[in-house]
Amino acid sequence: MNIIGARNISYTVSGIFVVASVIALLLWGLRLGIDFTGGSLLEISYTQERPSNVVIKDILAPLELGEIQVQQTGEKGVLVRTRDIPEETHQRMLSLLRGDKTDVTEQRFVSIGPTIGSELKRKAIYALSLAIIMIVLYIAWAFRKVSQPVSSWKYGIVAILALVHDVTIPMGLFAYLGRFYGIEVNALFITALLTVLGFSVHDTIVIFDRIRENLRRHTSTDFEETVEVSVQENIVRSINTSLTLLLVLATLFFFGGESTKYFSLTLFVGTVFGTYSSIFIASPLLVTWQRWSASRRG
Amino acid sequence: MNARLLAIMLLILGVVAGAFDAPAYANRVLERIPGISMPTRPFRLGLDLQGGTHLVYQADVSKVAAAEVSESMEGLRDVIERRVNLFGVTEPVVQVESTGDNERLIVELAGVRDINDAIRLIGETPFLEFRTERPEKERNAILERQKQGEQLNEDAFFIPTELTGQYLKRAELSFDNVTYQPVVNLVFDDAGSDLFAALTEAQVGKQVAIYLDGQAISAPVVRQKITGGTAQISGNFTPDEARQLVRRLNSGALPVPIALISQQSIEASLGVEAFNQSVRAGVYGLLAVALFMLLWYRLPGLVAVVALLLYTACMLALFKAIPVTLTAAGIAGFILSIGMAVDANILIFERFKEEMRAGRGMASAMEEGFQRAWTSIRDSNVSSLITAVILYWFGSSLIQGFAVTLGIGIVVSMFSAIVVTRTFLRAMRMKEGKISRFLFNTSS
Predict the structure, then answer these.
(1) Is residue B115 within 8 angstroms of chain A, CB to CB?
(2) B440 pLDDT band (50/70/90 cuts)?
(3) What is the pLDDT, as a whole number, of residue A151?
(4) Which of A108, B35, B57, B351 could anchor a disulfide with B258, C-beta 3.0 to 4.6 Å?
(5) What pLDDT score was predicted for residue B248?
(6) Strand pairing report for B52-59 and B258-266
(7) How close is the nearest chain A Cα to the Cα of B42, in Å?
(8) CB-CB contact of B271 with B48 (8 Å)
(9) In whole angstroms, what is the distance from residue A195 CA to residue A170 CA?
(10) pLDDT, tens only, A129-163
(11) In the predicted model, is pLDDT for residue B365 greater than 80?
């Protein structure tokens, strides 16, 4: 199986995924949770009968909270989402919902003001950008001694292109999930994306490291051949490492708590595409770039 | 050093770490040996695993001079912490967070049932009260009971009275004519004056204690009945302390006004459920990885699994010792680092197989394997560390938990792969032959 030779297929496949994700993002956007938008979330559970959503909205009507979203969760739980409310209103909500019964327990209450929400959005963008920049710099530095035939900066840029690919696709997935399944994106999602950046580059670096070693050994004068050999040598290792990570993430998805479910899903998808991109995108891109700049020069 | 000796030492380290992690089990075994037992320290759990409240207050420092801002925030923090302690919460967290021009206060209360009370108490005006001496017999009785661990919240020395800060008209700073020491004058309103007169009349010759927010700040002996409606607090104040006290009593509020901008509270049972699920996921994850390593890499795989167990024991011990607050995301980070810890081993083993295939003998193949793999391991882990650091800066306490466990996990896993795996493998050197080839899976 000639990986570098078949790079056009890889580019096409990735291209389709990336374009699809970008379209999904532009069309539907990510569904932002209250971590980003601010607002309140009240989770209660009933020990006996759980009233319908309409009934609950009616109960809360006298508070004049504007738009209220009510969602059922689990067997006896209800999630009530409103705009950001002060503690007093929260208590009034609870007493209205309890009425004269005592079978309602409050499981969770979150109220986030708008300043914190927009701050988190800003921080998320900074964090992602900063991570990408730092990684480019680090790779360029780590590979500074391998400037032929591809300069060390190019390693960094290629790695970043692969990373952007790895991050865009999970985002596209969640745009889709948000639109059709109402899955929201919260601070943990950004955490997962940042982690995917870390892991994916981990993988890519191992392959680049092998390319560097083979270049030093001058095993072949043809860059493409060197890269191909390096990738082939690494495939088993790459896949095994990802496999252990995926095993662990799968157990987390199935057995871990509710709060980390979508977190592990994001990581899972990111890791799959991360491994794929290290092998089928990052390395071939090096060759393509070298070919292209060589043809420009000559 | 002899590899075998080092291997044994590492195994012992693992067992000790394991005992530290699960002292209950360890102590059952150690009971037979007099004088030795493992200290029991619980793991520190985040709010989402034990239930509790996370509050963020925005402090309004617009009226405070720039140079005094951090001092005011510290003062605010102290006052709030004192109030929070009244709740008897184990290890409350009260922190100042200054970002840009935002001064914030973060309060985390684990296991508090009624958040409403907590929020009300935190935002309230400082509580001033006058207390009278408790008769000796009662005092001793309470002290006795406190030694038994009961009635710990009762004040053994003084009894609260009706006279509290609500009767205070104003507080003034002045200096004693004779000693030039700063003193605080309290001026009561009419009702307060009457109460104070009655109080002092009854307590001549005894102490009357002045309490602020549950702490005694002065306990002078009453010399005579005071009818003027003024009281003087003189103690070992510095002028600054006296000024601050006056300011607080007068403003009827905290050093700086605060507003609640974010609140998260989680019921304890939800937390316990999340905790159990996280632990279960962790155990299954570990099992899955161990199985895979054994099946694919055989004997080196076994070595990797042992190294992994050692890694897990050490990580958990570190979490207990530092201590690191574990959140659901934090445990996820730990589980992830298990997957990553294995990666370094895989790198080494694949290298090793390659070198063997290239014709080297087992011993030198091993050494070459380590040498070559090291640069990959180092570079790839550094990049993950970079993201962990950025995550720490980016996140709230819940996310920081993840960044910390991931970061520590990466560092410890590098150690575990390089030192532990290498030592064990070296200790297991054996003669070449069919058996060793099978065990090391080098026929592929």
Answers:
(1) yes
(2) low
(3) 72
(4) B57
(5) 64
(6) antiparallel
(7) 21
(8) yes
(9) 12
(10) 888 888 888 887 777 766 566 677 788 888 888 88
(11) no
* Interchain contact A139–B (C-beta under 8 A): yes
Tell me the C-alpha distance between B98 and B73, whole Å.
9
Q: Supply the pTM of this predicted model.
A: 0.74
Contact A184, A259 (CB under 8 A): no
Chain A residues within 8 A of B379 when measuring between CB atoms: 142, 205-206, 209
Q: What distance separates the 2 farthest-apart alpha carbons in chain A?
A: 86
Residue B104 structure tokens: 């914030």
Min CA distance, B194 vs chain A (Å)? Answer: 36
What is the C-alpha separation between B127 and B118, in angstroms, rounded? 15
Please count the residue pairs, one from chain A and one from chain B, whose beta carbons lie less than 8 angstroms apart. 195
CA B51/CA B65 separation, integer angstroms: 39
Please, which residues bridge with residue B173 across strands?
B184
Q: Is B91 helix (H, G, I), strand (E, B) or coil?
A: coil
pLDDT tens per residue across span B341-358:
887 887 787 777 778 787
Closest residue in A to B282 (Cα–Cα): A252
Neighboring chain A residues of B56 at a CB cutoff of 8 Å: 116
Among chain A residues, the shortest Cα distance to B52 is held by A108
Q: How far apart are CA B196 and CA A178, in angstroms?
A: 66
Question: How far is B306 from B91, CA to CA, in rounded Å?
Answer: 36
Residue whose C-alpha is closest to residue A278's, from A123, A115, A162:
A162
A230-272 pLDDT, tens digit each: 888 888 888 888 888 888 888 888 887 777 888 889 999 999 9
Q: What is the mean pLDDT of chain B?
A: 77
| pLDDT of amino acid B443 | 45
Whether B335 and chain A come into contact, CB under 8 Å, resolves to yes
C-alpha B242/C-alpha B182 separation (Å) is 6
- Which region holds residue B187: left if phi is over 0, alpha if psi is between -120 and 50, else beta? beta
Q: What is the mean pLDDT of chain A?
A: 83
Q: How far apart, in Å, do the first and last CA atoms of chain B sit?
A: 33
Q: Which tokens is B363 given?
A: 């011993």
DSSP annotation string for B9-33: HHHHHHHHHHHHH-HHHHHHHHTTS
- Cα(A51)–Cα(A290) distance, integer angstroms: 66
Q: Do the Cβ atoms of B340 and A245 come within 8 Å?
A: yes
Global ipTM: 0.79
Is the Cβ pair B380, A205 closer than 8 Å?
yes
Reading phi first (left if > 0) and then psi (alpha if -120 to 50, else beta), residue B359 is in left
